[in-house]
Every structure is written in C-alpha cells, then in structure tokens.
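Run log // design_07
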C-alpha cells in the first residue's frame, strides 16, 4: 500500500496492495472551461462547504471548504497567500499516526490537527485507514468560534458502476444527479456507510463528532465522494466551540478488495 499526507493535511494517495487506487489520486481535471483540483482526501475546517455570511461569519470571508486544504509549505517556507500563521510538517509517531498541525489568527485564533494511520490484513485482504480532525480554540475571552468540520474523500470508481448503501437505503450510479450533493443523516443504530465498486468495497464508520454524510460527484466515471460532516442540515449551519474548547471528529475507512 502507498499513501502520503501532504503538508495541508490531504491524503493524496491511498492504494491497495496491488496498487489499485482506493482513493482517486489528486489530479488536475478540466471541468468545462476551468482546470480544477480533484481527488485525494482533503480536510474541510473550520467550515465545510460554503461558509455562512451572517453573525460571526459576517466579516470572515472564508473560502469554500475552509482554510486547511489551502495551507501549504514549500521548501520549508509558508508560501505567499497561505492563510496559516504557523504549520508543522507531517510527522510519524511510534503508534503509526502521521500528524500535521495548523495555527490561524484570522478570522479567529484557532488551531487544527489532522492525523491518519493505516493498517492492513493481508489474510483477509482488508485495509484500514483511521482519520482524525481536532479543532481547538485559545483560552481567552470571547474566543468562541463557529465551525462545521468535514472530511472529503474521493473514492475511485475506475470508470465502472458502483452502488451506495446506508441502512436499508440504496443508490445506484444512475440514481445520482451529477454535481447535486445530498445529505444522509446518521442514525444512532447505524454508523457505517458502504460503497461497493468493481474493484472493492469501502466502509466508512463514524466514530465521534460527525452526524452524517454528504454524497456528491461531478465525475462518476472517476470518483464518488461520501463525506463525513459534523453539521449537515438546516437551519443549523454550524456549531459553536467555546473558548479553550476542543472538537474531535474521527472516522475509519475499511477497504476490502474484491477483484
């Protein structure tokens, strides 16, 4: 298995033992007249999707899907326009977790830690990827912040059909409206979402922090996105993290190769 985490916390590649892509690798794709970056598994923090513009968000001017996925270090230097004041490059600990950290002062003082680790069981042909996003605020007066964390994996479909399963619900490729996301709320009795592809099955299990999944694709022949989110329904658009608080969002991806 080959996998890497770039300095912006994105897992840019995750492969099976025979080098089949589980995640669609980070790629520049031509979509209409625009060249866009797609693939991998980016982190969306402090906001998932388009940030609200009312209340505390009024003057935040946050980009869609937050700041973390735009934060990069090149040659040990923060690149021009990087919104992170400080970053720590990905580091591997003794338990196999690789972690990258980010600290921001605008629009609020907060930090984000992104961690992931992978394991495999060759006997059962099963591979695991554990993922964690932690958001924290400083312990100072009026430092509570709005947030809506999301994890955004692109699962490779390799030009084949696929099906999606949650509880007793099922969606086939033809059931999806291209570029029209929909929300699947998590039920207490069922924390797992299943994606069946021609090359293998991926199960996403929510551990803590998340309350549902967004399903989306604009290239179903290349990828399907099933995205754990901590706020996925209206009228609630965000949660509030109090001063000195921490929010943890964890999930596990399990891949079983079938081809």
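design_07 sequence
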């Amino acid at each position: 298995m080959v996998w890497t985490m770039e300095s912006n916390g994105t897992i840019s590649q995750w492969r099976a033992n025979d080098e089949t892509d589980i995640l669609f690798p980070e790629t520049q794709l031509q979509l209409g007249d625009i060249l866009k970056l797609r693939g991998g598994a980016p982190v969306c923090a402090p906001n998932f999707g388009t940030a609200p513009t009312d209340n505390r968000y009024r003057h935040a001017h946050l980009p869609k899907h937050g700041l973390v996925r735009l934060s990069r270090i090149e040659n040990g230097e923060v690149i021009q326009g990087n919104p992170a004041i400080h970053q720590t490059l990905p580091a591997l600990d003794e338990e196999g977790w690789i972690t990258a950290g980010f600290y921001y002062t605008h629009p609020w003082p907060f930090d984000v830690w992104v961690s992931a680790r992978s394991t495999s069981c060759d006997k059962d042909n099963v591979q695991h990827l554990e993922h964690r996003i932690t958001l924290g605020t400083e312990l100072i007066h009026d430092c509570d912040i709005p947030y809506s964390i999301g994890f955004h994996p692109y699962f490779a479909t390799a030009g084949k059909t696929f099906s999606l399963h949650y509880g007793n619900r099922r969606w086939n490729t033809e059931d999806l409206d291209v570029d029209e996301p929909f929300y699947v709320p998590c039920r207490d009795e069922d924390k797992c979402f299943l994606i069946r592809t021609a090359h293998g099955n991926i199960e996403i299990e929510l551990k803590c922090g998340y309350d549902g999944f967004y399903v989306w694709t604009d290239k179903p022949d290349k990828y399907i996105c099933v995205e754990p989110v901590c706020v996925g329904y209206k009228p609630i658009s965000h949660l509030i993290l109090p001063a000195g608080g921490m929010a943890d969002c964890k999930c596990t991806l399990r891949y079983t190769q079938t081809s």
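The two ends are 16 Å apart (CA to CA).
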